[in-house]
Amino acid sequence: MRKHILGILGLVALSAGIADFVLKSAPSTPETKDSPSLTASVQQQAPAKPQALLPASPQPQSPASPTDIASKILSKNIPAQERREVLYQLTQTHSEEATRSLIKIAASDVDARDESSRFDVSLRITALEALDQRMASGEASASAITTVLKKQTHPTLLFFARISLEGVTSGRPGKLTRFIDQAFSEAGAG
Amino acid sequence: MKRSLFILSGISGVLFCLGHVTSTWASPSDLSPTCNDFSNEQQKALNDFHWNNQDPTFKPDFCDPDNLAYHVAKALLFTKSLGKLNGSALDKNGQGFLSNDPYQFFSRRIRSIQFEPDGEDCSGVMNAYVDAADDIGKSDGVMHVCQSLAQFDDYFISSVLIHEARHEEGYHHVPCNHGFYMAPGQKSCDESYSSGGSYAIQAEYLIKTSRAPRIASSIRQNARANAIELLVERFNQLPLGLQKGAVLIAQGSEDSSRDVLFYDGKTTTPLRPQLESTDRLYAVNGYLKVYNVSTKTQVTYADGIHPGPIKENIDYRGSEAGEYLDTYASSMTTCNLFTHGVDCSFSGKRVILPIKDFTPIGFWSYVPLNSSDKAVRIASKEGRVYIFSESSNTFQSAPASTLNSGDWDENYFILLGSNGKLSFFNKKNRETTSNLPGIDLNLTFTKMITPYYWSKELQAL
Question: ipTM score of the complex?
Answer without folding.
Answer: 0.78
